[in-house]
Amino acid sequence: MELVLSIAIGIMTSCGVWLILRPRTYQVIIGLSLLSYAVNLFIFGVGGVKANVPPILGSDDPSILADPVPQALVLTAIVIAFATTALFLVVLLASRGLTGSDHVDGRNEPK
Amino acid sequence: MSGWSHHLIVAPILIPLIASALLLFIDERRRLAKAMVSLASAISLTVIAFILFRIESGPNGFEGVYLVGNWSAPFGIVLVLDGLSAMMLLLTALLAVSALVFSLARWHAVGAHFHSMFQLLLMGVNGAFLTGDLFNLFVFFEVMLAASYGLLLHGSGPLRVKAGMHYIAVNLVAALLFLIGVSLIYGTAGTLNMADLAARIPEIEPDRRMLMEAGAGILGVVFLIKAGMWPLCFWLPTAYSAASAPVAGIFAIMSKLGIYVILRLTMLLFGEGPSAGFGAPVLLYGGMATLIFGIVGVLASQALGRLAGFSVLVSSGTLLMVLGINDGAVSSGALLYLVSSTLTISAFFMLIELVERGQDAGANVLAVTMEAYGEADEEPENEEEGVTMPGTMAVLGICFAACGILLSGLPPLSGFVAKFAMLSAMMGTGSIGVPPTAAIWALVVLVILSGIAALISMTRVGIRTFWSSIEGTVPRVLVIEIVPVMFLLALTLALTVQAGPAMQYMDTTIRTLSKPSIYIDAVNNALPIKGVKAGTEGE
What we know:
The complex is a heterodimer.
Chain A (H helix, E strand, L loop, with lengths): L1 H19 L4 H22 L21 H32 L12
Helix pairs in contact in A: 1-2, 2-3
Chain B lengths: L10 H15 L5 H27 L6 E5 L8 E5 L1 H21 L10 H17 L3 H20 L4 H32 L4 H7 L5 H22 L7 H8 L2 H25 L10 H21 L3 H22 L2 H30 L3 H6 L25 H17 L5 H16 L8 H30 L11 H19 L1 H15 L2 H9 L15
Antiparallel strand pairs in B: 1-2
């Protein structure tokens, strides 16, 4: 399971990095979203990958419990990433409206 | 610190939060009411920051640990007030009052929710200065950034939207790096509380330590982006010069926030023990590169806004280099420089807007970079009411000259005192006590060069603006616009007059910082208040 998780994080990160280096604003925003998914999974992973175990007390042996802190961190990170992505979308639209182009520098490329 | 005054520590976060919430209920048309609430919040922040500053500079020293939610340290959320954070809180509050008063003349009315965002920015900045754990640092950082996105776009216009988009994209990536760094540190050390983390670092096994250091390095990149270290700084001059004047004025503290966190974390986590000195070469050489980039930028800029933007980089570069040397006496000089340069740059950003108001569009064509400015359509007309400043050009000229003197570090203002303190410590009269090395010599040369570059550029721009302006149009400047600028410059004068006590305070601060055990013990020994049930915490 660790292998699958790390491959998934790796693929999403590399796609995300490639996309944020692209010149179109829409590609950048998709890239940022992919990166934030990858980061969320990564935070989840640092707590140790465990399946079907509760994150709260229910047993005297802490080794069979999932670490609750990364889950709390992920929750906060998801909320913040969601809000900032929404804000970025608004700026993207404003830029599109003001410059008439979806290039990140607001210029039309000669083809 | 006991009784009610202990609760003052949380006030710099709560007051702007409540104020920004209150401001949402006031209709956008009732500008006066909004301005009053906002200003009242900023002034009370200044008073509280001043009280906290007095307590910290008093004989009792370090006692300011506040347990939010009444849980004891490594488990609950802590706020920690020490000499450094008290100083930064006061600096933030002073900049905030000046920027707010400045904005009342026209800028607060050019878009919606200016005051709410401004208060949230203050909350984020204050929270980041006070927090004692890494994840809350992330949360406060995001609060600050979210507010700064809105503020940067305040006033709108193609230039701001473009600069804002770059700024937001860069900072979103930085936020993701922040999360990666924090989670790596959590994964290896098992804690996010800074004091607990510092105490646990010696216990981490070597193979995990590498991972922890990698996490700290990634975390460092985030703050270096904020502070503007080369090559992470290309967004900064554009964003800062595109922002409206009062916003740029308060943004001056944000790049110093990056410096603050780096100073705090390197002194606390990597001051002593097996990971001592981690990252110092990066700061030293990165700082040098930033300073060189800043010097070239200052010399090359023709528009005043970009000149100020590059001055931010010069200031950051100098501070980063000094943090890289990590020597007590030099660092305390650097803290004085931090305060002085922040006040100067903030005043300069606001002054620029007043000076450029006098230049007509034709004069702007002369400067290549000024072409990008499409200000004609974004400034509201007949918004101005109130008393205009008599002898405008003379007052503006004096303020401009003062900024030039401060930026280049000439006597008699505090820029000189700060640079002198740093240079004399570097030259071996300080606690180094050994002949300066090649790196130190390079540093001395660069600091002096940066002063010369600032002097050349400010003289050139000053002559063009004040002496050889052909049109001779005198800008219409209101009293409430020039007073904040003069207030900030007067503060640097006060800092010069009181240089002795100020340096003493910086020395004490650095000495406290260089003993992490003081911080760690203070946090770990903080006891929950008895008889009060610990509340439930949650994000």
